[in-house]
Fold:
Amino acid sequence: MAKTERFPDIPAPKAERRPVETSHHGITRVDDYAWLRAQNWQQVFRDPSTLAADIRAHLDTENAYQAAMMGDTEALQKALFSEMRGRIKEDDSSVPMPDGPYAYGTSFKTGGQQPRFFRTPREGGAHDMLLDGDAEAEGKTYFRLGSADHSPDHARLLWGYDDKGSEFYDLKVRDLETGADLPDRIADTGGVGVWAAGNDGFFYTRLDENHRPSKVLFHRLGTDAGADRLVHEETDPGFFMNVGGTRTQDWVFVAINDHETSEYHVLPASDPSATPKCVRARETGVQYDLEEGGDIFFVLTNIGGAKDFKVMTAPVSDPSEANWRELIAHEQGRLILSIMAFRDFLVRLERKDGLPRLVVYERETGEEHVVAFEEEAYSLGLVGSLEYDTDTIRFAYSSMTTPSQVFDYNMRTRERVLRKTQEVPSGHNPDDYVTRRLMAPSHDGTLVPVSLLYRRDTPLDGSAPCLLYGYGSYGIAIPASFNTNCLSLVDRGFIYAIAHVRGGKDKGYAWYEDGKRDRKANTFEDFVAAGRYLAAENFTAPGRVVAQGGSAGGMLMGAVANMAPDLFGGIIAEVPFVDVLETMLDDTLPLTPPEWPEWGNPIISADDYRTIAAYSPYDNVGAKAYPPILALAGLTDPRVTYWEPAKWVARLRDRKAGDNPVLLRINMEAGHAGASGRFSRLEEIAYAYAFALRVMGRD
Structure:
C-alpha cells in the first residue's frame, strides 16, 4: 500500500550518519548509526535521565513522528482498548493455593494496574492482604513486582520490585503481623530469593554491572547487606545463574546454565553456612534439572543421547553421576518438558505429537496415567502445588476458543475438579469461533504446525486479512492458548494464526536444533512458508498478512521482511533483536556471552560470523519495497537494547524503496516487557492492533 492511501504524508525523521568502521575475520563493516548506542548505557539503565542529549532528541523525534502518523487512529485505539479491557474481570482473583495453615493467592481490584498478594485460612475465610502492588507503585512512572514468597513459618514475606524497567530488582522483607517492611533492603538482584529453613535469612542472586547474575549470597535478617555471605560465584560470563528452593524446604539449588549446558550445586536449607556440593560438573551439551523427592533427587536430563530427555534418580546422600539410575527411559518424539515430585507421585509435563499432556507416575507401583484433551490445538500448564505431601495438583487448560480453566486433580482417585473458569465480562461464545491446526510444508518439505483462530462467519476465499505470529528461538514453544486481546482483530474479520516454526520445541528437541546456529534460516523459511500456505489455501492472500513477533521473534520479523516483503501487508516488530551480528560481537553487553550457544560466536569463529551476517536483519536491509513496519522498543531494556530497533529503523528509511512508512515507538520509561501495569500494557497492544487494522484497511 502506498503511504498516501493509509497514512498521512508527513516527512520521516532522518538520523544523522556518523560512519563507524569495524573489521573481523578480514571482513569490514560500516555502521552509520552506531552513535545511537549510549556510551554510558549501563548508567542509562539505572537512570534514564543520563541519556545523551543528541540520542534523546532523536528518540523524541521518532516518538513525535509515530504519534503524528497514527494520530487519526486514536479513536480506534480507544475502542480497541475499551474492548480488551471489557474482556478482563477487573476484580479477578486466583484460586488460593494451600500451604500449611493458609492458602495464598493473587488478586486485582477494579481499576487496579498491579497485582495484590493475599492469604486466607486454609479452609477458606477472609482475605488478609499481604502486599498491595498498586500502593507500592503509587507515584512511580514504572513499577513491576518480582516474586513474593512467604517464609516457612508464614511470618514474613520476601518480595521484589523493579521501578525502572531495567530488571535490576530490589528485595525487601515484610513482617506479616505488623504489615511493615523490615530495614533489610537488597539492591541489584534478580528479583527472587529463597528462604533458609530457619526463617532468619534468605539466598538471592546479585547482578553485576553488565546485568549478569554472577553471585549467590545469603542475607541474614537484621545484618548489613554489605556483609552478606558469598555462597557461590560464577566467573564465566557465558552462564546464567539462579537460586531456587524445594517444596520440602530441605534444599537450596544453585542452577547454572546456558542454552545447551547445565550444572547444579546443592546445599541444605537448614545450614546457610554449608559449602554447596556440585552434583555434576558442566559438560558442553549435557543438560539436567533437579527435583527433590524425599531421600532421592529426580534428574531430568539429556545425558547419553536422550535428546528428548529422560528421568533418572540419585540419592541425596551422594547425587553424583555415578549414582544416577534410569527411571523413565528416553522416547524419541516425546519431549519431557518438566517434572514435579510429590511424596507418592511424580508428574511430568511432556509434548507428544505436537500437543502437551500430563503424565502421573505412581512412585510405589510404577504405574502411570495420562491427563490429556481432545481439541486440535490447546495449551496445558502444570501449576502444581506448594506442598510436597499431597495427592492434589493444579493445572490450567485453554484453547484458542476456550477460556482458561483451572482444575484441581487428585492423582490417586483421578478426580478432576474445576476450580475456576476465566470470565469474559463483555461476553464470549466459543461456538462463534473456529480453531484449526494445519501443517504447512516448508522449503525442505518439513511440515510446520500452524494454529488458527477465526470467526465462524469469516469468508475463507482469500479476502480475509491475517495476523501471523511467530517466535522460534531458545526452544520456546508458543502455546495455542486463549487470548482475549486477539478477539478484537478476529471480530473485525482477521484470521489469527501462530506459526510454530523451528527453533521452538513444538515437535521435540530436534525441532529446536533445526532452528538454531547454522540452521537458523529454517526458522525464517518456516514462517514464510506458513504465510504462503495460508494464502494458497485461501485463508488469506499475499499482501494480506500482517506479521508479528517480539524479542527474538522481532528478529524473525526483520529477517522475513528482508526475505519476502511481498508476502506481508505490514510487520509489527516488538523489542526486535535485529542487530544480531553487532550484538554477538560485543561481549560487554548483558546477554551476549550466554547467547553464543544459541547463535554462534562470531568473535572467534569466521563461520559463525558469516552465518549470522547472512541473516542479521540490520545487515541485510536492501533497496526493497518493504511493507509498512512498526517497531516497538523500551529505553531501559537490558535484553534487546533500545539502539537495535532505532538503528534498524534508520537504515530501513535510508535504503528501502517505495513510500511505505517505518515507525518507531519507544517507551522512554520502560524496558523489555513494555508498560508495567495491566491496563497500560493493553494500551500498547491496542496501538499495535490499530496499526494492523490500518494497513489492512479495516480501521
Remarks:
- The CA atoms of residues 68 and 172 lie 42 Å apart.
- DSSP finds 14 helices and 37 strands in the chain.
- The chain has a mean pLDDT of 95.
- The radius of gyration is 25 Å.
